[in-house]
Automatic annotation (TrEMBL), chain A:
Protein name as annotated: V-type proton ATPase subunit
Gene3D superfamilies: ATP synthase (C/AC39) subunit, domain 3, V-type ATP synthase subunit C domain
InterPro entries: ATPase_csu/dsu_sf, ATPase_V0-cplx_csu/dsu, ATPase_V0-cplx_dsu, V-type_ATPase_csu/dsu, V-type_ATPase_csu/dsu_dom_3
GO molecular function: proton-transporting ATPase activity, rotational mechanism
From TrEMBL, chain B:
Domain of life per record: Eukaryota
Disordered: annotated segments: 682-701
Function: Essential component of the vacuolar proton pump (V-ATPase), a multimeric enzyme that catalyzes the translocation of protons across the membranes. Required for assembly and activity of the V-ATPase.
GO cellular component terms, A-Z: plasma membrane; vacuolar proton-transporting V-type ATPase, V0 domain
Protein location: Membrane
The name this protein goes by in its record: V-type proton ATPase subunit a
Membrane-spanning residues: 407-431, 452-470, 543-561, 573-596, 639-664
């Protein structure tokens, strides 16, 4: 049946695909952003968001509006939508959706570890975790002292367990170690997700693989850039690079050898996709950090996923786009409250 | 119901500041006008009355909260018959204040109640825990294992058996943690405890018999009481953390039995106290809500109206010099006086020094279509609107729908009995409509029926009529006037056929057998005829084609009124005539043939009656010299008709575009000269429905070519129209056959139904 997956796709996943496409139509457009950027207060933003698909989201709360409230409401909204999708999903879509949450779980685990190292109370940390990556054992993460303990005592029951294969070590968890742990987990996660998508026949693999490859390469670049000035050696670094991207294997080898920003740029210039990201901004145009440009590129890739039908990529892309939208709204809200009108246009438009 | 949509005019309202709110409120109550947005470029949050709208939204939020609470307390909100007027602006603050006070009070009481409830739950949980953990301790002292124990450490099990005293003797500090956890989490909790503490703990647990509500969410679920015994502080801390992680509710574990009894005692009294207080709080809350519920409905309506008024005010533009708001509205011409009256009333209410006034302004925009309806016609109007809303001043098809729609239904549903049932049901709805309206049922299916009650009534009445025509009552025939057929005449000559045949053909040629047609409808004798079905088939099929062609021609004729009204006489020649010719030459001729066959062939020569279908097909292929013609000169006439029909298609397709193009190229100078004259005349003769000028063709064209003339566009439109029309004629004629099919299906279904039930009853009767 693998050959005619398109024929039977709608039997199991047609409803959800329709749903997610409908929700995608509610993503804010350039005109909405333009209006939002004109707002003077958060109240104005609330009024404008009322006319979009967000509806009464912000107006139903009794508390005064603040940026953090906006952020949490938007996140809540995303989680509601996601859980609606997840609870209606049938395999293999349910596995696919679970894979999306693993990334958030990794982030949560690392955040809890660093929090525990700083002697923060768990109750204070938990609300800051991304609810998409929530799991039962979350609060107990702080107990662990070493990655091995973390694995064998707490995370062995969670879906994160398979990603621990390379990450198990007995060195004490400090901040550096937590960061390394995050990257190792992420590497394992991305590679596993990538191979999962590749195994899926039909358009899912075609759509998802480039997105995940991009994600892998972005992590590789960011690890490299962030490691400058720390005592992370090139060899250590190369063990953190996810080996499923376009950079693999030659680009990653070169990245491991890179010593400064210029050399990273030289590596990027070999790849047409990444060349533009590291290029110097044209004089006169606004300065954008390369992270922002990565986001821009990611948005472009995710929009492409909606051009094809009968695949799971739309779910991943929708979540990512919605996340980007939340970031944009929060950015604008931040600018509005801090009266930084000049920077307000630094959001990343999603639909032109 | 009117022939055309209402005549509208654009009017400017000058609303003096101070009284604008009252004026709009007054207009809103009447529902006379449609406002135009005068500041479309201003985004919604930059308009003038945003702060007022925000205030209304705040009130709506509080009201929503209030209504939710009222609903939670199961208090009915009394609804009033009349909807209250929008409150004057002065009163708004008062309402706002009242609402805020209520909200404060409510939230405080609710918070208190929540706290008490939580407290009560905690205490109940604590009692359950104490009761159950006692059984743990006791059962252990009797060397009975309760709950899962870790087999790998049998020595520890025996240690714990002797309780705390035994451990103290050993010098190690034994700690207890006890509490409640949700049933679903127990297994994961146990596993994690085992992994983290490497088995240096003992967990025993038992399910609570009662379902307890969750402290935070209020969800009712099964919980489990557990008791962990552990050694050492290090492990203790870990246990504590794991308990936190699984959201366990921990309670202090008593040292010995006496303490346990004490605690249980004190808990009992405290629970009793709490129950008392909780009860009183609930009563108070109910009182507050009861009071709020009395005016809740009024508030909801008032706030809604207020918000609508401010939304309308946001559409107006502000005149700085005159200190007044200017609104532009579409208003029916006949209602201008009412509009003025409403504004006067509004200014009087608002205590304005200068009254607000109306100013009619000329406009080139197409006004909105307004069709006034009443409760009888609104259903039919909505059926029409499901297909599309006509242009301004176009002929409205709704009045004819009142007859055609129920009639076409009845043709399919023709049965006296069933029609009676339907009309009685509809009649009941109509008679009790006031009561039903008040109920405001939210049942979607019921409201569909209820809103269409007059349609259903008409459908029922028409079904009664067609049922009489078909002579069908619950698919049995009524013999009211006595059948026109009699078999008696055939008996006289004693022929053998009567005795030898079970079936007998009544021969109308035999004198005396057929004494004349049945006075009304179909002769009941057909009910027993074997060839009843083929007779009805032929009859109903022909009837539906006749009805269909008449119906379609009527629609085409209606378009003439539009062409004349919009002074586009050329449309009559270039659209209407070819359309009508096409329809009549083909299908009109078919109708003619049907009637001709009915009239020309009697009982005597019925065996020579030709098949109309063959003749109709032959007409298209222009053959058929080998069959006898219906009448002399049939071939020539048919060829002539087909040629006319075929010729009208290119006229329909190309006539209008070419004519318009020709006018556009050649009629320019002509039009300019007459420009002034035209404007004057139009304003003079605004009300004349079908004026005929000698030069009205140019005038109509004028309106068309005033806009940019795009030949390709017009041609495209016309070709689409042509294709649609020609195909529509053919497919619609075929579609009208559905009248026959469904009517047949209806009759057959019920007659078989009758047969089945009757035979079933009979067999039952014989069995008994």
């Amino acid at each position: 049946m693998a050959a005619c997956q398109e024929l039977s796709f709608n039997v199991d996943h047609g409803y959800l695909e329709g749903l997610v496409r409908g929700m995608k139509a509610g993503i804010l457009t350039q005109a909405d952003y333009h209006n939002l950027a004109q707002c003077d207060t958060l109240e104005d933003m609330k009024l404008h968001l009322q006319s979009t698909d967000y509806g009464k989201l912000l107006s139903s709360s009794e508390e005064d509006l603040s940026v953090s409230l906006v952020d949490s409401k938007l996140r809540e909204n995303l989680v509601t939508e996601f859980s609606c999708l997840r609870s209606n999903a049938l395999p293999p879509l349910s596995t696919f959706l679970d894979y999306i949450t693993y990334g958030y779980m990794i982030d949560n685990v690392v955040m809890l570890i660093t929090g525990a190292l700083k002697q923060r109370d768990v109750a204070e940390l938990l609300p800051r975790c991304h609810p998409l990556g929530g799991f039962d054992q979350m609060a107990a993460v702080g107990i662990a002292r070493t990655p091995t303990e973390l694995y064998s005592a707490i995370l062995v029951d969670t879906p994160l367990a398979p990603f621990f294969q390379d990450a198990v070590s007995d060195s004490n968890l400090d901040e550096m170690e937590a960061e390394i742990l995050r990257n190792k987990l992420y590497k394992a996660y991305l590679e596993s997700f990538h191979s999962f998508c590749k195994k899926m026949s039909g358009a899912t693999g075609d759509i998802m693989c480039p997105v995940l490859e991009f994600e892998a390469d972005r992590r590789a670049f960011i690890i490299t850039v962030n490691s400058f000035g720390t005592d992370l050696s090139g060899a250590d670094r190369s063990s953190l690079y996810p080996a499923c991207g376009k950079l693999y294997p030659d680009g990653l080898r070169l990245l491991a050898l890179a010593e400064d920003h210029e050399q990273v740029k030289a590596v990027a210039s070999c790849y047409t996709d990444y060349k533009a990201i590291f290029e110097d901004p044209e004089p006169g145009s606004e300065f954008k950090s390369f992270e922002d440009r990565f986001f821009e590129q990611e948005v472009k890739l995710n929009i492409l996923a909606f051009l094809q039908q009968f695949h799971f990529g739309v779910f991943y892309s929708y979540i990512k786009l919605k996340e980007q939208e939340s970031r944009n709204i929060v950015w604008i809200a931040e600018c509005v409250t801090q009266r930084q009108k000049s920077k307000i246009h630094n959001y990343i438009p999603i639909i032109q | 119901m009117v022939f055309r949509s209402e005549e509208m005019c654009l009017a400017q309202l000058f609303l003096q500041s101070g009284s604008e709110y009252d004026c709009i409120s007054e207009l809103g109550e009447l529902g006379l006008v449609e406002f135009r947005d005068l500041n479309p470029s201003v985004s919604s949050f930059q308009r003038r009355f945003v702060s007022e709208i925000k205030r209304c939204e705040e009130m709506e939020r509080i009201l929503g909260y209030l209504l939710r609470e009222i609903q939670k307390a199961n208090i009915a909100v009394p609804e009033e018959d009349e909807s209250p007027l929008a409150p004057p602006p002065r009163q708004v603050l008062e309402i706002m204040e009242q609402l805020q006070r209520l909200e404060m009070e409510l939230s405080e009481v609710a918070k208190n109640k929540e706290k008490l409830r939580r407290n009560l739950l905690e205490l109940t949980e604590y009692t359950h825990m104490l009761k159950i953990t006692r059984t743990f301790i006791h059962s252990r002292s009797r060397h009975e294992a309760l709950g899962p124990q870790y087999e790998e450490f049998p020595t520890m099990e025996t240690d714990s058996v002797s309780g705390c005293t035994g451990m103290q003797r050993l010098g190690a500090k034994l700690g207890f943690v006890s509490g409640l956890i949700q049933r679903v989490k127990v297994e994961a909790f146990e596993r994690m405890l085992w992994r983290v503490c490497k088995g240096y703990t003992i967990l025993s647990y038992a399910e609570v018999d009662e379902n307890l509500a969750d402290l935070d969410t209020g969800e009712i679920s099964k919980s489990v009481v557990f008791l962990i015994s552990f050694w050492g502080d290090q492990i203790g801390q870990k246990v504590q953390k794991i308990c936190d992680c699984y959201h366990c509710h921990l309670y202090p574990h008593p040292e010995n039995d006496e303490e346990r009894a004490d605690v249980l005692d004190s808990l009992r009294t405290r629970i009793q106290d709490l129950n008392n207080v909780l009860h009183r709080t609930e009563e108070y809350l109910r009182q507050v809500l009861q009071k709020a519920s009395e005016s809740a409905y009024t508030w909801v309506v008032q706030v809604k109206k207020m918000k609508a008024i401010y939304h309308i005010l946001n559409l107006c533009s502000f005149d700085v010099t005159n200190k007044c708001l200017i609104a532009e509205v579409w208003c029916p011409v006949s209602d201008l006086a009412n509009l003025r009256g409403a504004l006067e009333e509004g200014s009087r209410k608002g205590d304005a020094t200068v009254p607000s006034f109306v100013n009619r302004i000329p406009s080139n925009d197409t006004p909105p279509t307004l069709l006034r309806t009443n409760k009888f016609t609104s259903g039919f109007q909505s059926i029409v609107e499901a297909y599309g809303v006509g242009d301004y001043r176009e002929v409205s098809p709704a009045p004819y729908t009142i007859i055609t729609f129920p009639f076409l239904f009845a043709v399919m549903f023709g049965d006296l009995g069933h029609g009676m049932v339907i009309s009685l049901f509809a009649l009941w709805m109509v008679l009790t409509e006031k009561k039903q309206n008040k109920k405001r049922s939210s049942n979607e299916i019921w409201t569909t029926f209820f809103n269409g009650r007059y349609i259903i009534l008409m459908m029922g009445l028409f079904s009664v009529y067609t049922g009489l025509v078909y002579n069908d009552c619950f698919s049995k025939s009524l013999n009211i006037f006595g059948s026109g057929w009699s078999v008696k005449a055939m008996f006289t000559n004693q022929n053998k056929t009567l005795q030898t045949n079970a079936l007998l053909t009544l021969d109308p040629n035999f004198s005396g057998v057929f004494s004349g047609p049945y006075p009304f409808g179909i002769d009941p004798i057909w009910n027993m005829a074997v060839n009843r079905l083929s007779f009805l088939n032929s009859y109903k099929m022909k009837m539906s084609v006749v009805i269909g062609v008449v119906h379609m021609s009527f629609g085409v004729v209606l378009s003439v009124f539009n062409h004349l009204h919009f002074r586009q006489k050329f449309n009559v020649f270039l659209l209407f005539l070819p359309e009508l010719l096409f329809l009549l030459c083909l299908f009109g001729y078919l109708v003619f043939m049907i009637f001709y066959k009915w009239l020309a062939f009697g009982a005597r020569d019925s065996s020579q009656a030709p098949s109309i279908l063959i003749h109709f097909i032959n007409m298209f292929v222009m053959q058929g010299k080998d069959i006898t013609p219906l009448y002399p000169g049939q071939m020539g006439l048919q060829i002539f008709l087909v040629i006319i029909a075929m010729l009208s298609v290119p006229v329909l397709l190309l006539g209008k575009p070419l004519y318009l193009y020709w006018l556009y190229r050649g009629g320019k100078g002509l039009r300019r000269r007459r420009g002034y004259e035209r404007v004057r005349r139009v304003s003079e003769d605004d009300n004349s429905t079908a004026p005929s000028y000698e030069d009205d063709e140019e005038e109509g064209v004028d309106e068309v070519t005033n806009r940019e003339f795009d030949f390709a566009d017009v041609l495209l439109h016309q070709s689409i129209h042509t294709i649609e029309y020609c195909l529509g004629c053919i497919s619609n004629t075929a579609s009208y056959l559905r009248l026959w099919a469904l009517s047949l299906a209806h009759a057959r279904k019920f007659s078989t139904n009758n047969q089945f039930t009757l035979s079933f009853l009979c067999s039952n009767a014989t069995l008994c």
